[in-house]
Amino acid sequence: MPDLTGHVALVAGGARGGGRGIAVQLGAAGATVYVTGRSSGSARSGLDRPETIEETASKATEAGGVGIAVQVDHSRPEEVRALAERIAAEQDGRLDALVDSVWGGDPLTDWEHPLWEQDLDTGLRLLRQAVETHVITSRFVLPLLVARGRGLVVEVTDGNTARYRGSFFYDLAKSTVIRLAFAQAAELRPHGVAAVAITPGFLRSEAVLDHFGVTEATWRDAIAQDPHFAYSETPAYLGRAVAHLAADPDVIRKTGRALATWSLYKEYGFTDVDGTQPDFAAHWADALVDEYGPLGDPL
């Protein structure tokens, strides 16, 4: 792991999944990590899942950093403004990385119907939850990075190509997040701040494990249900990719790009928690291209 001692990061949407993996691995690198989201020990979000921001913050501390949980609804500008002000006050204005992993759109995604047969209100709610929250967060947090004249913005998405993702509103949200990184990169570059999007491969999030009826300890039992699951990766793999980006003194050369764990491990040499280096793009080329076509070039 790189050394991020003294660095301060904000992981928005850090209660579970990729956000949790990133927050914990930033902590493992020695960073102070603010972990935000709606899922707290005091109140669950609309997802009604058991994971909380307090758990993630605790794991980041146990890993070697300092985890700080702050319950924030990132769709509410006043709460995000207060978060930015708190970080500035507690860290003497220092923020090195903003990671936006806010999602919460799983129960809002319709995988069965085309746009003209979907419920419009539900689809628009997905966009507000998965896109507007990112815009609101950047609006109030970016001044901390700009003031220091350095830093990194990471927009977490699904896929780094123009390939359609199977559901209209889901595809629009995930591809728009990539564009958010591109647009922020253009505006932040003169200030020495980089902005990238990043995607994991087949992520073994808590929800995915639950879907297959397995745990992280028994995840291989699910390969019988889906052979492609053999090439999945833990949220820690994504987290290690982000930690290396945050520690890269020349990360500005990547600004505006849509990155992936399956390419970054080759550059930085990190592994997943079991010592493997999952490469879902390579698996796609070997096993899925005939059925689904090429994965597509990175945006």
UniProtKB/TrEMBL annotation:
Domain of life: Bacteria
UniProt-listed InterPro entries: NAD(P)-bd_dom_sf (IPR036291), SDR_fam (IPR002347)
Database matches in PANTHER family: DEHYDROGENASE/REDUCTASE SDR FAMILY MEMBER 1, DEHYDROGENASE_REDUCTASE SDR FAMILY MEMBER 1
Protein name, UniProt field: SDR family NAD(P)-dependent oxidoreductase
Organism ancestry: Bacteria, Bacillati, Actinomycetota, Actinomycetes, Streptosporangiales
